[in-house]
Specification:
Strands 1, 2, 3, 4, 5, 6, 7, 8 and 9 form a nine-stranded mixed sheet that branches. This protein has helices at about 10-15, 40-50, 65-75, 80-95, 105-110, 110-115, 125-135, 170-175, 205-210, 230-255, 280-305, 310; strands spanning about 1-5, 25-30, 55-60, 150-155, 160-165, 185-190, 190-195, 215-220, 260-265. The longest helix is centred in the C-terminal third of the chain and has 27 residues, at about 230-255. By secondary structure, it is an alpha/beta fold. Helices cover about 40% and strands about 15% of the residues. Keywords: Hydrolase, Lipid degradation, Lipid metabolism. Pfam families: Patatin. This is Patatin-like phospholipase family protein.
């Protein structure tokens, strides 16, 4: 099931109805992938270099950071290094945000009766990341952004997909990055929300529902293990195989069953990327650039091709 969570809108953004673009409607969909989602800045760098501005941006989990930045950019020309600057800022904000371990919460999971286990228990305290989000989002509201943005979260109680199209930008990002057991869930409009990647790691369906003609779908697969030094290595390999297959299966399903042209952009990330590996952000951006550059000629042809209805007229 899917829920569109409509929060009270700001007076300025309540009645705005953007003019339909003359060209085919292009949507950029950024999937889940934790820090690997920094590769999205490389994808956007290439799009900006070629003057391609999405008409809609959809994101979940770590992809929400790049999505929120791009939605703030608007349709105007950007400096050549804009995406690199944004990626560096993202890395500074991420650095150390996951270092504050909540040992009591960890112990409460092991000894629930003794320490009164709470469903909000998580390994990481979220004070630093909440503070970083406030600075990143600048008190902006989702509905007031120059480019339409949809953030996908998961209702932790019902498992429903929740689409955030209004409300505070910081709330939307915080909800969709609430990785279960890593960060506490986020309470919003009476719902307990967690990472959007839990229910929909590549939310193509949202862009399709919004009438996109061309969808740039950016997914972030994990690198596979080549050697196994412990049981945890086996667990990581199993999880990686499951998530990577889910990504590909989801893309394949929507690509076959809907009429929108869908480009799959999966940056070739050969390294294991942990939560704290911010030193790899430049490498990830480079991987995003390489992946998008390969598809730019085809994307430009798609954008230049009129809709079937327009051709008929």
């Amino acid at each position: 099931m899917r829920t569109v969570l409509e929060l009270p809108r700001s007076p300025e953004g309540a009645e705005v109805s953007p003019k339909a673009p003359a060209r085919r409607k292009v949507a950029l969909v950024l999937g889940a992938g934790s820090l690997k989602c920094a590769a999205a800045f490389g994808v956007v760098k290439v799009l900006q270099r070629h003057g391609i501005v999405p008409d809609l941006i959809v994101a979940c989990s770590g992809g929400a950071f790049c999505a929120a930045w791009l939605a703030q950019c608007g349709t105007g020309a950007q400096p050549a290094d804009a995406a690199d600057v944004a990626a560096a800022r993202f890395a500074r904000g991420w650095d150390g945000a996951f270092d504050e371990v909540d040992y009591r919460a960890v112990l409460s999971a092991v000894f629930p009766r003794m320490l009164r286990f709470d469903q909000r228990a998580s390994i990481i305290r979220d004070r630093r990341i909440n503070a970083a989000l406030q600075g990143f989002a600048n008190d902006l509201r989702i509905e007031d952004l120059p480019v339409p943005l949809r953030l996908v979260a998961t209702d932790f109680i019902s498992g429903e997909e929740v689409i955030l199209s209004s409300g505070m930008l910081s709330d939307g990002i915080r909800a969709t990055i609430a990785m279960p057991l890593i960060l506490p869930p986020w309470e919003l409009a009476g719902r307990t929300l967690v990472d959007g990647g839990v229910c929909n790691p590549l939310p193509l369906n949202v862009a399709i529902r919004e009438g996109a003609d061309i969808i740039i779908a950016v997914g972030f697969e994990d690198a596979l293990e080549t050697e196994f030094q412990s049981g945890m290595g086996l667990v990581r390999q199993l999880t990686t195989l499951l998530v990577n297959r889910l990504y590909r299966a989801q893309y394949g399903f929507y690509n076959l069953t809907h009429h929108a042209e869908t480009l799959a952009i999966f940056p070739d990330i050969q390294r294991r990327v942990g939560l704290g590996d911010v030193h790899l952000v430049p490498y990830l951006v480079e991987r995003g650039v390489a992946a998008m550059e390969r598809e730019i000629p085809y994307l430009q042809r798609l954008i230049a091709t009129p809709k079937a209805a327009e051709m008929a007229s």
